[in-house]
UniProtKB/TrEMBL annotation:
It comes from Nematostella vectensis. This is F5/8 type C domain-containing protein. Residues 1-63, 68-155 form the F5/8 type C domain. InterPro entries: FA58C, Galactose-bd-like_sf. It holds the Pfam family F5_F8_type_C.
Amino acid sequence: MDNAFWATYQETPGEDKVFQRGRIKVSKSVKFPLRTPIKAKFIRFVPVEFYGHKCLRVELFGVLDEGCSEPLGLEIGAFGSNTFAASSHPDNAHFARLYSSKGWSAAEATQGQYLQIDLMSARTVSGVAIQGCEGGWVSSFVLQHGMTNSTFNDYKLDGQYTVRENLVVQYKGRGGDRNTEF
């Protein structure tokens, strides 16, 4: 895989999965479990629709122990600032950690803007969580993944993704427990 081609996540062959955030408070994070976990070294969030401006704070979930899906540690700094990249405002990409005070915001409203994370080694990703920022958030996005920095696959799904609201679980991260809406 190379930087010229990224594959989009698909849950049904031939259909790109577009994740829908729904109308959730900007202070809440929304988790999207992946029906088909992916193995990747690089993950890209490509905003499709947004309110205000394209702003993201994210966490990735993976299979770590005994098949349980757990945060990979973006929020708590398990991945250094240099593992975050972006199409615009690349110096601010590391602010995209879930619950950070700022978040990453695209410099332009054009299509093709993205936030990219280098997982440093191949990992199984079983879910993602996103959160907006004051004044803007991503309402839908496409998830791309790859084993190199040059080729990515799109995560795809048949039909619309429905955000399950009002299910609150405890998320343990830096700064204590936080409620995360699933």
